[in-house]
Each structure stands twice: as C-alpha cells, then as structure tokens.
Target: Two component transcriptional regulator, LuxR family
Amino acid sequence: MLRLLLVDEQRMFVEALTQYLSTESDLWVSDSAYPSETDLLDRARIAWPDVAVVDIAILRNRVHEVLRRLEEACPDARVVVLSSTLDPEPAVRAARAGAAAWLPKERGITELVEVIRLVGRGHAWYPPEVLAEVLCALRQEAGPVGTGDDPLAVLSVRERQVLGVMAEGKRGRQIAAELFISVQTVRKHTRGILTKLNVHTQLEAAMLANSGGETPVLSETTVRALPR
Model:
C-alpha cells in the first residue's frame, strides 16, 4: 500500500481527494498539511509517505526550497507536483527541484491517481505539452561532464554503483539494501554524484547514466522509467 502526504492550501480539494482515495485499496492518505505550515516537515517525517502530492500554487519561488526540505525529511518519498497552469516554466522548476511528476489540476482526480501509482512504482511523469521543454532544460543544465571518453570518470567506484542502482529506478532505502550500506551513506554519495556531474536532481543523473554520459534525447515512455 502506498502512503500519501497531501500538501495543499485548498482544504476542500484535500478532503475530496482523501475521500476518493479511501476507496482505493492500494492507497492510504497518512496525513495532509498546508504548504505554509511551520510543522510541515515534522508532519512529513511522522507520516513517512511513499508519495507526497504538493500544490505549488502558493510556493512560487520557494518551490525548490520546499521540495528540497521535503526530500531531506523523507528521502524515500517521491513528489507529485500539482499546478493550476500548463505553462512549462513551473514544470521546469519542479523538475529542477527533483519532482518525479508534474500534473495540471485540470486533468482531474482520476488521472492524478494514475500518476500517483506510476510514481509509486518508481516512474517519472510529465505531460506531453511540457515534456520536451523540461528535458531540453535538464539537458542544457547538465552540460558536458567528466573528462576524456568516459564523462562519468569523475565518480568514485562506490558512486558509480549508487548511480547504477539509481538509474534502475531505485532510491534511498532500496539502494542501501542492495549495496549493503546505510541510508546516510546513500545520501552522502548521492550529493557527491550530483555535485561531480553538475546536475541538480537524481532524474538528471539517471539520464546521464542511462546514456553512458552522453546528452540523451528521451521519449516520454523512456522518462517514465527514470527516478526523480
């Protein structure tokens, strides 16, 4: 069963979504909160969600900060961002902040539930209307990495192992269990990977890993298989 954290300022929407999700046997809302609440991260730690659904409407320029803090509080949680617009700019900001999915609210609850399940299985999802611009922005920011014929040569042996498992769609505790290391060690290596590859998110790092370090051109189907 997927544990969910709902972060939205529209209480009626949260209540309606919670009621709808209560009919789904594989989904459970462990908590809900306003994005501006001072105890949001504490509540997130207690809820320990598999997926956090976050409305970015009131966050504006704080999107990156809030999502990063959520990741620190719940490193294994994947984030689905809700938006009130199809403007690609906030979608790019969400991707840079590490969101696994970005969904306009107009798509409705049924599609949101489908995206939650996809993200819960380790996939990423962005709508076709903005996907091209998101991938283009991430590719441009990634830029050339490494040296010589192996752009990933800047990584240590252990960092390559972590990145390899990450590129399979796993993260956090799953990576730790597979490599027999602690979650804290995974976090340390992940930070090192992002810094050395000059990328902002695990999605970008996984894109580079799956392309052997070359700047990839990914289809919508392919990007769904990558972690955030």
About this structure: The longest strand covers residues 27-33.
